[in-house]
């Protein structure tokens, strides 16, 4: 089963260039959480699932938090936080992209995606 968080947009100050750290830019995050949702599906009880509103706040805190040079670090921190704070999540895939990048060409966005699993 999967919980999907798609197109989360935040303003952050991550990047290797001084302008990125000073002015900031838009970051888009997608997250897929693997979890057993069958108990919640049968009980209609929020306590039996992963509270995606809290996951959203966890992600926001990292993206809007202290600047990192690499979005790889941002994605890694999000994945780690989700696994630490939400014991019902068995694995998480996090994508972090920058819609506005300085490259010589037309792109919709550039980004990274990481998948991390709970260690048993």
Automatic annotation (TrEMBL):
GO terms for biological process: folic acid biosynthetic process; tetrahydrofolate biosynthetic process. It comes from the Eukaryota. One of its GO terms (molecular function) is dihydroneopterin aldolase activity. It catalyses: 7,8-dihydroneopterin = 6-hydroxymethyl-7,8-dihydropterin + glycolaldehyde. The keyword Lyase applies. Coiled coil: none annotated. Residues 3-116 form the Dihydroneopterin aldolase/epimerase domain. Its EC number is 4.1.2.25. InterPro entries: Dihydroneopterin_aldolase, FolB_dom, GTP-CH-I_C/QueF. GO terms for cellular component: cytoplasm. NCBIfam families: folB, folB_dom. Homooctamer. Forms a hollow cylinder assembled from two ring-shaped tetramers. This is 7,8-dihydroneopterin aldolase. It comes from Chlorella variabilis (Green alga). The lineage of its organism: Eukaryota, Viridiplantae, Chlorophyta, core chlorophytes, Trebouxiophyceae.
């Amino acid at each position: 089963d999967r919980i999907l968080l798609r197109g989360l947009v935040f303003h952050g100050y991550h990047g290797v260039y001084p302008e990125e750290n000073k002015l900031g830019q838009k970051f888009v995050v997608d997250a897929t959480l693997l979890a057993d949702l069958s108990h919640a599906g049968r009980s209609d009880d929020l306590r039996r699932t992963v509270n995606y509103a809290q996951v959203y706040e966890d992600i926001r805190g990292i993206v809007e938090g202290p600047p990192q040079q690499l979005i790889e670090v941002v994605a890694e921190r999000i994945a780690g936080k989700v696994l630490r704070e939400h014991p019902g999540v068995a694995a998480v895939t996090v994508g972090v992209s920058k819609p506005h990048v300085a490259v010589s060409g037309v792109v919709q966005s550039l980004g990274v995606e990481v998948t991390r699993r709970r260690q048993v």
